[in-house]
User: Which sequence fits this backbone?
């Protein structure tokens, strides 16, 4: 029932959450309220670890800094059919109970497509990676620091020269 | 008691009533109030004040819970509107939810609606092309529908009139099939759009790619500044409502203008149940309005009534306005009311790649989207086994090339790649459909909405002509793409239901003969001269142009006529 408490804490400021710089949300400290998925605190931690393997912290923030696993959960919970959600939760199980090194090895193997794994595992990973990237590219950090998104371009050039 | 009634009637009496506040209703409001008439503007939805009521307008993508994607539960609850390309987290609040306003589909029809002050003028794709006599003479030449009671010369000065105020970008292209207008500077074609233009001219001589003409202020004139509008900032977030007033909407333009005259009374949450016809006086005297919140019924009166509820709802109101004189709907002596509904065939698109011109890309955003290919098929003479033709959109762009197969630090740096893909090009068809008696809307005899108004049954479908035309579009565009050296050509035979084009038209068509049409050349009901229809319902045929500009011009022209007729005591 620890998760319930975490949920309550989150609800208090959930309304303003979208406006907070995502890196301030912290990783693993808070979780989001899910409507359809039944995710344990352990599983949530695991998702954070997998996301961090996909987008690690380097000289710039990684998945944990940006809370990307929470975004993935939010998307799977709200935007996908039940069957997809079930596959996602099922597939996640194949990554449970491993130490850090083994987890990383498995994720890399699944990513390469070489590992012979169950269909659900593959589905889980495909979606996990896709939404982690989606969350990363659409994070405030990336959109304001790395791949700048302009609210007000104020210009259009149809013959913009490409630097060789 | 009788004194009170007289006072009540007086309080509820205006010079003019306008039903609807979208593109055409907004224009009617502006024209009437500017000419000094006390005007009641009725809107069934809530008020949307320019800028103040655009809650998402300045949000960044990461401020949307699902980064724009509507949640699955919302999509499932709203299967029709969810198909609309603009129905996203940033604009959902401006669309009617299917569940809240049901209708009956005898055949699949995606009815996309915006019930609020400004209507769909907040959401439109802002493409504006004039009609020419190739369009107005279409039914007569090709033997369908009925002859339009007007020609290009009747409407040309009114196109100029509305274009100057609304702000339309474009080039003077000198094409008789797509007359030039009062243009602000065009948004230029990009390198590959330009290349395709030249390629087509070289090969065909008579197929053109022009800069799309759009209702964007590419250069603000005094008339736009006076409306409180400024130059378009190339945001391409138009569906959220524009804080600069960079594109034309009722909210940014005509309604505030009407408001400033002091002659407008705008009444939101007011659904019109019917137009009141007085059998003794032989004219319409007003409208019966239901307050959508309290359900209270109020009657309002005026000398002249403009029905601008958007094509299908205008049909509904007239069908529901019955009297001893008009048992089948107001002005419906001919029996054509609700029939000959048509739309634009948007059911095919085509895409490809181009390996050339890699020294260029685009920078910033083009608010009108790119290029436009005016109708070339069956233009001067019949040349195919189907009637009429299609216009097409055309645009080219490059994206960032990203290889997402990696993982870890490698993937991370790849996601910041500045490498570009080759140019990608795309086109979509905008085909004319032939109005037919068998494509109709009518009132359901049993089921009613929450306000006691009969639900509408929609029975509209494609026909053989549409199928043949679509095949021709795919063949011709494939050939045009191939000859330009485009590769990897992919056809998307989208097969979407009618309605999703959001260009539904007709049902209250214009015509010379009261036996076969509803409206005369001034948009007056033949049989009830103080009721006018100037929205999409009045269209006799659809041609291929995006229709909104024509509704604006129709409306300004009809109000001018109505006010002159009133002064002469004719109305």
Assistant:
């Amino acid at each position: 029932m620890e998760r319930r408490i975490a949920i309550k804490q989150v609800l208090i400021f959930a309304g303003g959450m979208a406006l907070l710089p995502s890196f301030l949300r912290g990783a693993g400290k808070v979780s989001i309220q899910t409507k359809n998925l039944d995710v344990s605190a352990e599983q949530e931690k695991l998702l954070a670890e997998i996301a961090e393997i996909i987008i690690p912290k380097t000289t710039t923030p990684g998945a944990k800094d940006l809370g990307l696993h929470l975004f993935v959960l939010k998307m799977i919970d709200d935007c996908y059919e039940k069957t997809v959600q079930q596959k996602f939760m099922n597939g996640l199980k194949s990554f449970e109970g491993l130490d850090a090194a083994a987890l990383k090895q498995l994720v890399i193997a699944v990513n390469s497509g070489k590992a012979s794994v169950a269909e659900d595992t593959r589905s889980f990973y495909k979606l996990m990676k896709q939404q982690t990237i989606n969350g990363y590219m659409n994070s405030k950090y990336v959109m304001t620091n790395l791949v700048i998104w302009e609210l007000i371009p104020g210009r259009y050039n149809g013959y913009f020269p490409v630097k060789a | 008691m009788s004194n009170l009634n007289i006072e009540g009637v007086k309080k509820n009496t205006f010079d003019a009533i306008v039903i609807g506040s979208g593109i055409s209703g907004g224009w009617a409001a502006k024209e009437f109030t500017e000419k000094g008439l006390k005007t009641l503007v009725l809107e069934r939805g809530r008020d949307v004040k320019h800028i103040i009521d655009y809650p998402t307008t300045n949000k960044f993508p990461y401020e949307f819970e699902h980064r724009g994607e509507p949640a699955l539960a919302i999509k499932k609850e709203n299967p029709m509107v969810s198909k609309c390309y603009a129905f996203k987290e940033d604009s959902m609040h401006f669309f009617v939810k299917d569940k809240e306003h049901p209708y009956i589909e005898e055949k699949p029809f995606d009815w996309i609606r915006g019930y609020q002050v400004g209507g769909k003028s907040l959401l439109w794709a802002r493409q504006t092309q004039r009609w020419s006599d190739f369009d107005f003479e279409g039914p007569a030449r090709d033997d369908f529908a009925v002859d339009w009671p007007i020609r290009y010369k009747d409407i040309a000065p009114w196109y100029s009139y509305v274009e100057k105020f609304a702000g339309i970008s474009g080039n003077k292209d000198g094409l008789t099939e797509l007359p030039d207008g009062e243009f602000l500077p065009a948004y230029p074609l990009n390198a590959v759009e330009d290349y395709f233009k030249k390629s087509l001219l070289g090969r065909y001589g008579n197929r053109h790619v022009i800069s799309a003409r759009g209702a964007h202020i590419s250069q603000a004139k005094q008339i736009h500044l006076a409306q409180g509008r400024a130059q378009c900032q190339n945001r391409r977030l138009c569906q959220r409502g524009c804080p600069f007033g960079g594109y034309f909407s009722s909210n940014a333009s005509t309604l505030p203008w009407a408001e400033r005259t002091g002659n407008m009374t705008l009444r939101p949450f007011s659904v019109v149940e019917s137009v009141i016809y007085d059998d003794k006086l032989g004219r319409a005297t007003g409208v019966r309005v239901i307050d959508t919140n309290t359900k209270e019924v109020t009657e309002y009166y005026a000398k002249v009534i403009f029905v601008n509820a958007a094509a299908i709802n205008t049909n509904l109101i007239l069908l529901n306005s019955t009297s001893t004189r008009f048992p089948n709907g107001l002005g419906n002596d001919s029996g054509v009311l609700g029939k000959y509904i048509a739309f634009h065939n948007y059911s095919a698109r085509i895409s490809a790649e181009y390996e050339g011109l890699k020294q260029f890309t685009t920078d910033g955003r083009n608010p009108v989207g790119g290029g436009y290919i005016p109708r070339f098929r069956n233009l001067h003479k019949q040349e195919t086994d189907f009637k009429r033709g299609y216009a097409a959109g055309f645009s080219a762009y490059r994206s960032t090339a990203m290889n997402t197969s990696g993982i870890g630090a490698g993937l991370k740096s790849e996601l910041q790649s500045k490498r570009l893909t080759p140019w990608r090009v795309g086109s979509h068809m905008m085909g004319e459909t032939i109005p037919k008696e068998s494509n109709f809307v009518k009132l359901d005899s049993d089921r009613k909405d929450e306000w006691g108004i009969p639900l509408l049954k929609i029975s509209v479908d494609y026909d053989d002509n549409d199928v043949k035309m679509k095949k021709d579009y795919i063949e011709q565009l494939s050939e045009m793409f191939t000859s330009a050296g485009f590769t990897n050509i992919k056809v998307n035979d989208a097969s979407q239901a009618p309605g999703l084009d959001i260009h539904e038209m007709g049902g209250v068509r214009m015509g010379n003969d009261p036996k076969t049409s509803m409206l005369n050349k001034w948009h007056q009901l033949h049989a009830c001269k103080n009721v006018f229809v100037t929205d999409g319902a009045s269209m006799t045929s659809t041609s291929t142009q995006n229709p909104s500009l024509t509704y604006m011009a129709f409306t300004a022209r009809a109000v001018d006529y109505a006010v002159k007729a009133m002064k002469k005591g004719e109305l």
Observations:
- Residues 36 and 77 of chain A are 6 Å apart (CA to CA).
- Strands of chain A lie at 156-161.
- Residues 1-30 of chain A have pLDDT under 50 and may be disordered.
